[in-house]
Design brief:
221 residues; alpha+beta; three-stranded antiparallel β-sheet
């Protein structure tokens, strides 16, 4: 991991080296940061921020990084500007893509994969509680590359993750579509007591990348 200082709020952010040359949003202030070659320092000797309050909060700052594989207990959605265009869950069907009013298997309908567009990858984070029950704990949004993001599905289920270009956000129509998916797919006991999740999907904040960002370094195998 590398460390870069946000030029706006001086927060120190842990960044994966693979993001060199890419832009991401600071989770504290929303400033867009482009990680240039040689800009970041090793996490073993992070730069000292000019703002002492930023140093105090450093340990609480989430990393700007992307998952390298689909988590089998999570669900994944892809949205275009108007709603859902693809879904994935670990049920053996692989990625499903929209075809008219229904969803079909992507591997058998590669001709229906759009080559370009403004796509967001939505990760629905489902965890298991100590009592064995499940809960939809959080949601994270990633911006995908504008070209050939969805066509990566043909290469394998995890291949679309290579098209992530940084944190993303959802507009009103996208939030409504994600909320419909949650209500249709999951029992109410799984999500209705997560007020932060409900608030995020029903408010007019169209800039935040989600709630409860995950730490992928410790994700289950």
């Amino acid at each position: 991991m590398l460390v870069v200082v946000c030029p706006s709020c001086q927060a120190r952010l842990k960044v994966s080296p693979q993001f060199t040359g890419r832009a991401g949003k600071c989770p504290r202030c929303g400033e867009i940061i482009t990680l240039q070659q040689g800009q970041a320092a090793s996490s073993s000797s992070p730069p000292q921020p000019q703002n002492p309050q930023a140093a105090a909060a450093d340990d609480d700052m989430p990393a700007i990084e992307q998952p390298d594989r689909l988590i089998r207990t999570f669900h994944y959605l892809v949205c275009d500007r108007l709603g859902l265009v693809a879904t994935w869950e670990a049920n053996g069907q692989g990625w499903m893509i929209r075809s008219g009013t229904t969803f079909v298997r992507a591997v058998k309908n590669a001709d229906k994969l759009p080559a370009q567009g403004d796509f967001k990858l939505v990760e629905l984070q489902i965890t298991t509680r100590p009592d064995g029950s499940h809960r939809l704990e959080g949601l994270h949004v990633y911006q995908l590359a504008p070209r050939y993001a969805l066509t990566r599905i043909e290469r394998g289920e995890d291949a679309i993750l290579g098209a992530i270009r940084g944190p993303g956000s959802l507009n009103r129509d996208q939030k409504a579509a994600v909320f419909r998916y949650i209500r249709d797919k999951f029992m109410r006991e799984l999500w209705e007591d997560n007020q932060a999740l409900v608030d995020y999907l029903t408010n007019q904040d169209y800039h935040s990348p989600g709630i409860s960002p995950p730490t992928y370094a410790s994700s289950p195998a």
